[in-house]
Amino acid sequence: MKLKNVLIVVKDIERARQFYHDLFGLEMIHDNDGNMILTEGMVLQEEKYWKEFLGKEIIPENNAGELYFEERDIEGFVEKLEKYYPDVKYVNRLMTHSWGQKVIRFYDPDGNLIEVGTPM
Quick one: which of 18, 20, 49, 63 could link to 26 by a disulfide (CB 3.0–4.6 Å)? Predict the structure, then answer.
């Protein structure tokens, strides 16, 4: 068995597609009307369909998990983030952990937690 995809819930699938393309270069592979598969195994699911499947409310910024990306040029990434999405909500701005890794954490437009760090 292998992990095939990671699904996140979004309110506006096109806005989310653009966000993940702008910042991470993810491309759309398949659009299935409210369920969109992107490169690197990312799946975007529109909130209204997810609510129907689960029968529960969606809780943005629940901090129960995060999407983790690595970037060698993290300062360049921060510049791109601030240029394209100046109103992004940060958990922490660029910082350096005691073990030397630089990281930044923020929410996507739908409250999904993202961490970008330098490779270890």
Answer: 20
| 1-56: CATH, from 3.10.180.10, 3.40.50.970, 3.30.460.80, 3.10.290.10 | 3.10.180.10
Distance CA 20, CA 6 (A): 14
The pLDDT > 90 percentage for the chain reads: 96
Topology of domain 65-120, per CATH?
Answer: 2,3-Dihydroxybiphenyl 1,2-Dioxygenase; domain 1 (3.10.180)
- Is residue 112 very low, low, confident or very high in pLDDT (cuts 50, 70, 90)? very high
Q: Which two tokens stand for residue 73?
A: 């040029």
Report the distance separating Cα 70 and Cα 40, nearest Å.
13
pTM assigned to the model: 0.94
